[in-house]
């Protein structure tokens, strides 16, 4: 390894350590009942609600920057590859990626349950409407996702972009889904169990719903939440914004409906379980599309 690479790794580790330490300190401080900085104008909101919104934005910054790095690595690997198969090469994650994702989700869950609650958030202030409404919201959210998917597919097929969208979706899933069986199980728990609840709670419940309550205004939290949602998923590519932009606004509609946070979580559960469940089929279709498109005399659609 060259001296330049060593220096780059050293700088990256130092920056990562400093940012991680700052995030941990901010996460603990946000729930301090004695802190007076950034007190919410609305006393009905938890005293640490605005400070917690800042921590969520820091987490969003981690997601954005990690995605940028992953996208650059993927592009560099493809550009430097001598792979000349009939289809583009799919970059796969490290073998231990599933365990790493599950540990991160577990850390967030512990922070939310044992540190931040109830001084930085409560179920009521993030849009929880009660057990009955939450169960109904989960069911309705799943049904709404089925309708959402049907409409999105119709639009992509009518506009001629369905195959390209499917290619980008397959590349995204391949880039985050590990190969070893145990790691796949860990990734499934992380994506399909923890992620829909934690991401909706943080980026919709805290950053939008609770911040709107704390600030007595909905517009700034809506726009900040939208920017965070786009940033969290930007690594998937510009074309995938055809999914994530309407996904955000549908989730927001469910959040502020009588279904509350449960509706948004149900919508997100379906949005994570569906692509994971269909991944094997997506990979087969990806191979078939590029086998056909690379055949002599064929034209890519």
TrEMBL record:
Keywords tagged on the record: Membrane, Transmembrane, Transmembrane helix
GO molecular function: endopeptidase activity
Nucleotidyltransferase as UniProt keyword: no
Pfam families, A to Z: Rce1-like
Keyword Transmembrane helix in annotation: yes
UniProt xrefs under InterPro entries: Rce1/LyrA-like_dom
Top-level taxon of origin: Bacteria
Transmembrane segments annotated in the record for this chain: 12-31, 51-72, 93-114, 134-156, 185-206, 218-235, 247-270
Swiss-Prot/TrEMBL GO biological process terms: CAAX-box protein maturation
Domain CAAX prenyl protease 2/Lysostaphin resistance protein A-like intervals: 185-272
UniProt-recorded name of the protein: CAAX prenyl protease 2/Lysostaphin resistance protein A-like domain-containing protein
